[in-house]
Specification:
The protein is α+β, with helices and mostly antiparallel strands. It has 19 helices and 16 strands. It has a six-stranded antiparallel β-sheet with strand order 1-2-3-4-5-6. Strands 7-8-12-11 form a four-stranded antiparallel β-sheet.
Length: 471
């Protein structure tokens, strides 16, 4: 007994029963056993100030004792004191019959809801206030005086997460679902890194409708006729280009009109995220918001408010083995486990693909069309064309010579020289070039005649001041 007395001196709590073989102590939180049982303390330390922690202390063998943690309206857990292993109510009562005979079950922190509801339905002096006080999940009872079993019970969960925990979802699944229903949620799947990568790889070109592809062709016809030729749209409105060509086209557009391209990318991410959010809301709603309807619980507000006849709650308890001392939340959790959401919900999310099935393609392409129109207006209105007809004649001439933009070509007659065409300057109608001769490099603009002389009469150009005509 000295060992027991030493133990009682080390823990903090109130003795609510002191019998021959056991003592029952209401501990002042998990820290009460921190020094005497650090391992069990670690299992209990997540307790809130509202939890009740009871210890049934064996006076014969301390390690045979039981610690009970009761969370109001949630779960009651029983631990073997010696090794921290969880046990059940039957283990406790078989180990210490004195508990059931001498102590009021509610005093131990055990939920007493099933007994209260049974007595209420049988007119056994139980008020609705007693039930409301016992079960936090129950917020209102509309009593039927003629048949108390038909009294309507209203249930309210603290939040969506509280409801989803009934089904065994993983924490990161619940975090994801919370972000879906949060009004403060940012992009769920489509990060800026992803969308920018999709643009740089050329995949965004496939998101444009035929009308917008024609606008892109118009843009390319002004400033990059070579790329324009790769973007083929037949008479039936079918396009024909590959990933490599798409990548070149989008790179060129971004290099020249980055702000407009960023606007298009951001709009796609916004609409895609919105569509994904709606799809996942429907998926989650369909999967579990009405789950308890099969047990007679009716939904008022998804994941939040439900109502059920009082007698139906008794049937729920009967559905779950060893439920005499469970809270209603525990009973629902046992039933919710049958949905079996231990599998990774996120896998299902990503298996649906990165573009939402119900993506608003119409709104997206209307927006893209406006941005492409802005680019066309910028080219036609703000570019200083000296002579637009002459500008397109020069582009056609370069095409006839089979010269493409941004391609390095060897000089036809001079092996130490190369040139690269970067288009036509609309304000001068001169061909923009990058020239090399040996180790020398220079940017130059030539008229068509100068360009022809450079190609076929190189003797007209000074070798030292290359690119400059002899005087």
């Amino acid at each position: 007994m000295s060992e027991i007395n030493d133990f009682l001196n080390e823990v903090y709590g109130d003795i609510i029963y002191n019998g021959k073989t056991i003592a029952v102590i209401k501990l002042n939180g998990p820290h009460s056993i921190r020094n005497v049982n650090p391992e069990l303390y670690r299992k209990l330390r997540g307790s809130s100030s509202y939890d009740t922690i009871i210890m049934v202390l064996s006076k014969q063998f301390i390690d045979y004792s039981v610690v009970i943690k009761s969370e109001p309206g949630k779960k009651t857990s029983l631990f073997n004191y010696g090794n921290g292993v969880k046990i059940n109510f039957d283990d406790l009562f078989n180990r210490f019959p004195e508990v059931k005979k001498k102590i009021s079950i509610p005093d131990l922190g055990f939920p007493n809801l099933k007994s209260l509801i049974y007595r209420f339905c049988n007119n056994d002096y139980v008020s609705t206030d007693m039930i409301l006080q016992e079960e936090p999940l129950i917020t209102k009872i509309v009593e039927n005086k003629n048949n108390k079993g038909k009294s309507l019970v209203y249930l309210k969960f603290d939040n969506n997460e509280d409801y989803w925990h009934l089904f065994g979802y993983k924490d990161y699944d619940i975090n994801f679902m919370s972000s879906i229903f949060s009004s403060y949620s940012s992009s769920i799947i489509n990060s800026s890194d992803y969308t920018n990568s999709e643009w740089s790889e050329g995949y965004f070109l496939y998101t444009f409708n035929i009308e917008n592809l024609k606008k892109i062709k118009k843009i390319l016809s002004y400033i990059n006729p070579d790329l324009n030729e790769t973007l083929i749209i037949d008479a039936n409105g079918r396009y024909d280009f590959d990933d490599i060509e798409a990548k070149k086209i989008l790179k060129f557009l971004y290099d020249n009109f980055s702000r407009k391209c960023d606007d298009i990318v951001d709009k796609w991410a916004e609409l895609n995220d919105e569509a994904h959010t709606n799809e996942y809301e429907e998926l989650i709603e369909k999967e579990n918001s009405d789950y308890f309807e099969q047990y007679g619980i009716i939904k008022e507000t998804s994941f939040y408010k439900y109502y059920v006849p009082m007698q139906t709650i008794l049937k729920l308890f009967d559905e779950v083995p060893n439920s005499d001392y469970m809270s209603l939340y525990e009973v629902l959790s046992e039933l919710g486990d049958k949905l079996d959401k231990s599998e990774d919900f996120m896998e299902e999310v990503y298996s649906n693909g990165l573009q939402a099935q119900h993506f608003d393609d119409k709104t997206y392409n209307i927006y893209c069309g406006k941005k492409l129109d802005e680019i066309i207006d910028e080219i036609e209105d703000e570019w200083d064309f000296a002579n637009k007809d002459e500008y397109f004649k020069i582009l056609s001439y370069l095409k006839k010579l089979n010269y493409q933009t941004d391609v390095k070509y060897p000089h036809p007659t001079k092996k130490d020289r190369t040139f690269r065409i970067f288009g036509v300057n609309p304000s001068t109608n001169k061909i923009k070039l990058f020239l090399t001769m040996g180790n020398e490099k220079a940017n130059q603009e030539f008229s068509v005649d100068e360009f022809n002389n450079y190609l076929y009469h190189p003797e007209l150009f000074d070798s030292i001041k290359f690119g400059k005509k002899k005087i």
